[in-house]
Amino acid sequence: VYEILAGDQGDFIINDRTGLITIAPGVVLSVGRSYALTVKASDSAPPAQRRSSITTVYIEVLPPNNQSPPRFPQLMYSLEVSEAMRIGAVLLNLQAFDREGDPIRYLIQNGDPQQVFNLSQSSGLLALGKPLDRESTDRYILIVTASDGRPDGTSTATVNIVVTDVNDNGPIFDMFLPKNLSVQEEEANAFVGQVRATDPDAGVNGQVHYSLANFNNLFRITSNGSIYTAVKLNREVRDYYELIVEATDGAVDPRRSTLTLAIKVLDIDDNSPVFTNASYTVCVPENLPPGTVFLQIEAKDVDLGSNVTYRIRTQEALQYFALNKYTGELSLLKSLDYESFSDTEATFTFLVEAFDSKGTMPPGIATVTVRVKDMNDYSPVFSKKLYRGMVAPDAVKGTVITTVSAEDQDPPGTPASRVRYKVDVVQFPYSASIFDVEETSGRVVTRVNLNEEPSTVFKLVVIAYDDGDPVKSNTTTVEIAVLQPSVIPRFTQDEYRPPPVSESAPKGTVVAVVMAAALNQTIVYSIVSGNEEDVFAINNRTGVISVKKSLDYESVKSYELRVQADSLQVVRSNLRVPSKSNTAKVFIEVKDENDHAPVFTKKMYIGGVSEDAKMFSSVLKVKADDKDTGNYSAMQYRLIIPPIKDGKEGFVIEAYTGLIKTAMLFKNMRRSYFKFQVIATDNYGKGLSSKADVLVSVVNQLDMQVIVSNVPPTLVEQNKDQLIGILERYVQDQIPGATVVVESIGARRFGDGYSEEDYTKSDLMVYAIDPQTNRAIMRNELFKFLDGKLLDINKEFQPYLGQGGRILEIRTPDVVANVKKQAQAVGYTEGALLALAVIIILCCMPAILIVMVSYRQRQAECAKTARIQMALPAGKPASTAANNLYEELGDSTIEREDSDYEKEKKKKRRRKYSSDESSAKSSSSGSESEDKDYLKVTLDQDEATESTVDSDEETGHDLGDSDDESGSSSSSESEEDSSEENGDEEESDSDEDDSLSRSSSTQSSFSKSGTSESSSRRSTERSSIKSRRGSSRGRVRRSSQKSNISSTASGTSYRKASGSSCKSKTSSASLEIEDTIEEVSEEDEQEDTDQVGASPDADNTNNSAVSETSANARAAANREGERGKSGINGEDSEDESTEEVDTDASDKEKAISKNESSCLESEISVTSKGTEGTKSTASAPSSKTATSPDTGNQSSDTNMHRKKIKKISQEHSQSQSDETLNTAITESETAGDSTSF
């Protein structure tokens, strides 16, 4: 259902079913008026479930008769179109709007004569009809019309189309520029030519860049296309180049064009003629006739149009040689004679040159060496034409008969001068079959064993020839006569074996005697062989063989001489006749003597011993060699070791093997070393000796490395020496002279903790010793030396480890690796301990601060004492107080410390049970002595000024005194009870506590005698308040300051008041003493407490008494309510334990019991109490003397009197408590701002 909700103004109606909006009946619309109708559409559901929607309808009233033409949304359209745009692509939608809704017709009126674009007449879509070419047309301005068919119903719009460029054109070279270029050689940066290329594309697509596609090292091209030579060109190397020039545009994907240029290199005269050989060597026979050409040389000039000519440059050669200047032919001017040259080789060397007759370059030079060949000019010439010889009929093969000799006069050393011999087998064949001549020596010998008839004569022709060219020779004849056996001597023995001769035998020593005989012949003996070194001589008449030169067994151990006996007739004819009978052998043995000292294989032996080596473990083995034999080479070794601590030998050596062993243990001696000497003596220690140095360094596994290999340990053991030698060489490359030592060879260890073993592989544990430092090389350095050369070491190990054998790794020994793991684990524990130590140090900081604070408080105490002494009036007897102050601050402290040291062990158990109470009681103990001293000072001042105070102040001071006394009494009772309860303590300690208790009771009774009932109540209240204020450290300090001020004010009032009664003086003095004691005790309570806490052992002697006093004080405080101050003041009397103090206290008690006879007696009593209390304080901590029995009785009476006074004080003090308390507090607070003690 449709309905108009608003905006129709009664001019429109809507059909509720169809939604058609029509003009209401009778309504006339006005032109130009507009409506905005709100229309609602609802469904037909029940009202509760009905749904609806609302829209707005705009209605504009137009004029009649279609008076509005179509209109374009824009009058000007601009767009860019790539020239590569495809045909048919829609470029623009030019749809116009007609208000009347008439159909519109579109048309391109102008700007497209080529009909490149298509415009749809009905839809107004502008599309591309033909391909674009930016290079021909880069912009189009189209006038487009839209018409609804009426004459005035047309509107126009302008479409500005810019055609954008694409890289569709490559660079184009200018073909009118020359492509055939030329350039002169030997010119760098010479202009060759220029190219030019253009690209019709726009922008970077049209920018042209030039480059060379080849010969970039010879030519270069500039950005404008100019080509230059980059280096000097050499025409002789290359005279023509085809250079490719490439032009590219600047697009991302550039287009390229190439142009080939022909470049010709022009020649200049820049080369000299060059011979084909730098040197020529030619051999010329010495007999070559003159004019013979024996060599032709040639030179070339690579320059164009060259004309090469030749000439001899060396002037000396011009007399022997001629050179054709055009052909280069070299010929002889005269014959050469080899023998005319003085040097060994007959050579002639000279220079020739070739030059360009038209050029300007220097000539080329070559060397010509002419070697003159020696021609065989001379034949060998024998020294004799006929040689004669004799031979025995039974001469053996090789018997020398005679020697022929020939000489050649050709130059020595040349083949033509070398003469050799041979037998002419043609002329005398039988003689040639039984005789021969040695080729080089010319000796004529028997070829076979002879068996010829005596008196037979043989002829033999011997030829002598040379090695010249041609070979030349000459001949001679040898006549050989066979002798009769009767004229040939015969030896008595074929072999002689004399006794051995000592090598140390002097010259002339007879070795042997040979003997031969012949019929009617005189025998002549000679040594024919075996005596080449002329060691022996033979008497040619007697046959005695003797030593001619020194013998050396180590050089020659035996000689075999061959002696010959000849008749004198044969010898004179120089024709010796060797035969079986006239020759004999002599075997001479040389006897060895001990003439050589032993020689060690090394000058220094370097070894190592492990720290955990057992006794008599092997260290190293030394060895000495001796050239002598037998016992003379048998060694005995001994050591020379410098003294070692404890008289230990250190090392021993096996006398006959040279094995050095340990003789001590080397535990914890790593990096130590031992140097000693080893002596070797031959002949089992009876002969000659020599020595060598031995260095033994102590090591452990921290110095070792394990070399793991993939071969069994047995193979490594077999080749140990070779393998160690290889390792040692690589270590010595880094450290000269270093020695590698084997520690062990075993199966490979692996697994967790190296507990498993593999016997197919081996572990070789080694270390190296540096002879310069005498210590083992560091393990890490040894690893670097070997691991860096592992490949090279494996190559050298290969022959000894077998095929496939190699080193797998170099690792740390097992023990070192395990120690590292343990060290890491221990490191965590050390870290935890370090952290714990830091925590402990931080916790100790407060204790250190407490000690520092205590020290400063002690300084303040000393300063305060000095101020008290300065306040004493001149002329009054104050020496006793001053002495007591000095004792308290000096001597008494020292004595107390000494006493503490003596009884330290006795007080340990007491300190354990009374640690809490000791702090408070130590504070009160320190305060008491100052209170008593200050009491004496104050009374002296009172006597000097002789002033009095008013009755109120007197009452207040009396109350203070009473309160102090009551506190002391309570403390004393508590001490007695505590002494009984602690019966398990030592007897001496109990006696000391009892003495302290009695002294305290006596002093308390004496203090109570001068108090009144009203002042007791007032003092009790003040004590309670001050006790509550002293519960914390900070408040104690503040309360002490106020008490000091109050005391000062009271003292001032006391001095101002004068003329009062004697009782008034006593009360005023008591009040001032009470305030002063409170001030000093409260001020020092904190200081003494800190001192006791910081150094509990410093006051061990007082701790027991202080602990008991503190416990009794707390008990008294519980019984008397708010009397906290009395417990503190009661502690002031705990140290008054000497006999003098107790006696004086008893006297004062009796004096007060007699009704306080006079004012002067009261003042003297109070003064004496303060003075002797100070003495008590000074002496009690150090001596702790036992109290006399009289003091004990007085203490009992004092307790009874103290109880009575306490009861009276409580009854009369209630009425004045409030007023007195308020007055004291007010005075204290008022004076606290202006005055301090």
UniProtKB/TrEMBL annotation:
Residues 1025-1040 have a biased composition (Basic residues). The keyword Oxidoreductase does not apply. It is found in: Membrane. Residues 1041-1055, 1098-1110, 1154-1173, 1211-1237 have a biased composition (Polar residues). Residues 997-1014, 1056-1070, 1174-1189 have a biased composition (Low complexity). Residues 897-1237 are annotated as: Disordered. The chain crosses the membrane at residues 832-855. SMART domains: CA. The keyword Secreted does not apply. This is Protocadherin related 15.
